[in-house]
């Protein structure tokens, strides 16, 4: 029988671990690595694990020594996974998930709280899919996170495994920079659908009366965009055509504020055109924008970690919601 505190037996030692001596690797150590990767911080991980920082650091160092790899590098941004750490984390998650299933099956342990986290640009279909996932798979105990956040933070969230999946767009303007950034973070972009540019406006705005809107039509009105923080480059803008001139600029941090300003100030924002009236209300409408551009909207995943069952289900819901 496999001991809970040991997942590698001397008799089945892999050639990868030639220097391994003794029966030391434990499920606890795997959980330590997962928690540090998710938080990106020894301080925060030790708080969650009810463990002193020196003890947590020592335990991970012992594990790295036994495996002959470096799992984490300490940087100004916190604890960052190395390429070896990325690969190891994928295996660690699978082992922990299987161990939990074994305990539930044979020890009568009640199913634990279900965890899932999404980071996304401000898309109603992503929220709608999240709600459907929760209804379908939430169970009696869950902790789900839906982070509508800045583009670069989406990338960092998935890279650090704070979120399992991220949702954003790529087009001909930002493609080179975004794909280079994704590659450097060991992330892969997966296509969902291609959207033609639209404009969100209040239903009572003069722009709402137009069947198709031109850039010249937009000139007198305030343009709204989402704040991108310290990475406020045009390439990370959530709105396409961010380099186009506008005399009236309004920058906000959340969807509710943006929608209120669209309505109250006859403002506009350039977007995918996908909107859910049940979630966003009837006061916002989308109109096509007469430009030669596109938004390739998709999801990003960590290349070193296979998606969980929850993540795979979420992706299937996304595909069904956006297939048309």
CATH top level assignment of the domain at 195-296: Alpha Beta
CATH architecture name of the domain at 195-296: 3-Layer(aba) Sandwich
Spatial separation of the terminal alpha carbons: 51 Å
Structural class: alpha/beta
CATH superfamily of the domain at 195-296: Periplasmic binding protein-like II
Helices, by number, come to 11
Low-confidence stretches: 1-23
> What is the name of the CATH topology of the domain at 195-296?
D-Maltodextrin-Binding Protein, domain 2
Percent of residues in β-strands: 15-25%
Shape: elongated
Fraction of residues in H or I helices: 25-40%
- Using only CA atoms, what is the Rg? 23 Å
Largest sheet: number of strands, sense, barrel closure: 5 strands, mixed
Strand order of the largest sheet: 4-3-5-12-6
Count every beta strand, where a strand is a DSSP E run of 2 or more residues.
12
Q: Give, in order, the helices and strands.
A: HHHEEHEHEHEHEEHEEHEHEEH
Could you report the average pLDDT, rounded to the nearest whole number? 85
Can you describe what's shown?
By secondary structure, this protein is α/β, with parallel strands linked by helices. Among the domains are: 10-106, Winged helix-like DNA-binding domain superfamily/Winged helix DNA-binding domain (Arc Repressor Mutant, subunit A, Orthogonal Bundle), CATH 1.10.10.10; 195-296, Periplasmic binding protein-like II (D-Maltodextrin-Binding Protein, domain 2, 3-Layer(aba) Sandwich). Helices cover 39% and strands 21% of the residues. The chain has eleven helices and twelve strands. It has helices at residues 27-39, 42-49, 53-67, 83-106, 124-137, 151-159, 175-184, 215-218, 255-264, 277-280, 309-322; strands at 72-75, 78-81, 114-120, 142-148, 165-170, 187-195, 198-202, 223-226, 249-252, 268-271, 284-288, 295-302. The strands form four sheets. A five-stranded mixed β-sheet has the order 4-3-5-12-6, sandwiched between helices. A three-stranded antiparallel β-sheet has the order 10-7-11. α1 crosses α2, α1 packs across α4 and α5 crosses α11 (309-322). It is elongated, with a radius of gyration of 23 Å. The termini are far apart.
């Amino acid at each position: 029988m496999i001991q809970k505190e040991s997942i590698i037996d001397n008799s089945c030692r892999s050639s990868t671990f030639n220097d391994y001596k003794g029966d030391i690797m434990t499920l606890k150590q795997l959980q330590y690595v997962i928690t540090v990767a998710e938080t990106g911080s020894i301080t925060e991980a030790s708080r969650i694990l009810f463990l002193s920082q020196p003890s947590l650091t020592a335990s991970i160092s012992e594990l790295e020594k036994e495996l002959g790899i470096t799992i984490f590098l300490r940087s100004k941004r916190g604890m960052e996974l190395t390429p070896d750490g990325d690969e190891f984390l994928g295996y660690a998650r699978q082992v922990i998930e299987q161990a939990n299933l074994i305990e539930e099956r044979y020890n009568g342990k009640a199913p634990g709280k279900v965890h899932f986290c999404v980071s996304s640009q401000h898309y109603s279909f992503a929220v709608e899919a999240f709600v459907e996932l929760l209804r379908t798979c939430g169970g009696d105990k869950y902790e789900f996170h839906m982070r509508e956040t800045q583009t670069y933070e989406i990338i960092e969230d998935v890279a650090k495994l704070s979120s399992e999946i991220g949702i954003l767009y790529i087009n001909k303007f930002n493609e080179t920079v975004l794909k280079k950034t994704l590659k450097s973070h060991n992330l892969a972009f997966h296509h969902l659908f291609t959207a033609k540019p639209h404009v969100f406006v209040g239903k009572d705005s003069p722009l709402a009366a137009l069947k198709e809107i031109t850039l010249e039509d937009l000139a007198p009105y305030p343009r709204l965009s989402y704040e991108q923080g310290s990475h406020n480059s045009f390439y990370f803008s959530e709105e396409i055509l961010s380099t186009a001139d506008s005399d009236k600029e309004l920058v906000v941090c959340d969807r509710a504020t943006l929608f209120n300003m669209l309505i109250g100030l006859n403002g506009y924002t350039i977007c995918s055109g996908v909107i859910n009236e049940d979630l966003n209300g009837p006061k916002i409408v989308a109109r096509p924008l007469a430009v030669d551009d596109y938004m390739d909207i998709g999801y990003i995943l960590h290349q070193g970690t296979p998606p969980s069952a929850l993540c795979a289900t979420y992706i299937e819901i996304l595909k069904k919601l956006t297939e048309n």
